[in-house]
Amino acid sequence: MEVDRRAFLATLGSVAALESMDSEAKAEALEHYMMQQLDSTVPAAPTPAPDPWRRGTGGLFIPRRAEANAERRLPELAPMPEKPTLVDFYNLRFAPANHVLQSATRALKTGMSEEIILGCLLHDVVLNLIKVDHGWWGAQMVEPYVSEKVSWAIRYHQALRFYPDPAAGYEYPELYNRIFGKDYVPQPHIKQAYDYARNHKWYMEARLITVNDLYAFDPKAVVSLEPFIDIIGRNFKQPKEGLGFDGSPVAHMWRTMIYPNNPL
């Protein structure tokens, strides 16, 4: 994806605001901007005026522009089924989900394991709920329903973004240097997470998510959830009560996305 540096910086308010951000915040802001640009290429249904009760920091809560000079609006949300499945969330809360679908499609086409494909499909969906520390939040949100390997890989993909591994096909993102003008110095907890993950038995699973993450911002790509329905069925433990109502330690996270308009 071509990123207009001036347009991106304008979303931050000022150069001073950029200079006050640490490396992790800059990377999160850039990825969020790219995902919004990617999703804006998909025609959206008409939306109502912003709901004053919707609160939060994720994509479901932040008004966004469909095009230049358009009024900022919150996306209109259809009601969820009584017992929502992961597929329901993709269709009704995560859509258009271009980035994660591109990521999983790339993993599928390059012959990666179903666990890695599922990790790519899930790695950024938590951004609809919250932006900060999305690797950790994302892993926690799916942990009861996927293998330990998948949740571990999602957790550590966030830290691995800042560290190249040419042998695995991952170079340091040139875009970071081009947009921000200098190399990052990751925060201590990111460096600590990288050092731990680099020596872990599942390092390559997390690394392959970053490989498929970095190269999944093609505005011309046509992707669909359909190729992943069976993979989800085999690898995602769908609760019979429905996501958000199964009494798991993370059910409230799914419920927040079901009912983002609830004021309390």
Secondary-structure map:
Blueprint: H1 5-12, H2 15-19, H3 23-39, H4 86-94, H5 98-109, H6 114-122, H7 134-142, H8 148-160, H9 174-180, H10 188-198, H11 203-214, H12 229-235, H13 251-258
Helix pairs in contact: 5-6, 5-11, 6-8, 6-11, 7-8, 8-10, 8-11
Q: Give the fraction of residues assigned to helices.
A: 40-55%
Q: Strand portion, in percent?
A: under 5%
Described by strand count, sense and barrel closure, the largest sheet is: none
Number of strands: 0
Please tell me what the overall shape is.
globular
Total individual domains? 1
For the terminal residues, how far apart are their CA atoms? 39 Å
User: What is the gyration radius calculated from CA atoms?
Assistant: 18 Å
Structural category: mainly alpha
> Low-confidence segments, ≥5 residues, pLDDT <50?
43-53
- Average predicted local confidence, pLDDT: 83
Order of helices and strands: HHHHHHHHHHHHH
- Number of alpha- plus pi-helical segments: 13
Structural commentary:
By secondary structure, this protein is mostly helical. The protein has one domain (5-258). It contains 13 helices and no strands. It has helices spanning 5-12, 15-19, 23-39, 86-94, 98-109, 114-122, 134-142, 148-160, 174-180, 188-198, 203-214, 229-235, 251-258. Helix 6 packs across helix 8 and helix 8 (148-160) crosses helix 11 (203-214). The longest helix is centred in the N-terminal third of the chain and has 17 residues, at 23-39. Residues 43-53 have low confidence and may be disordered.
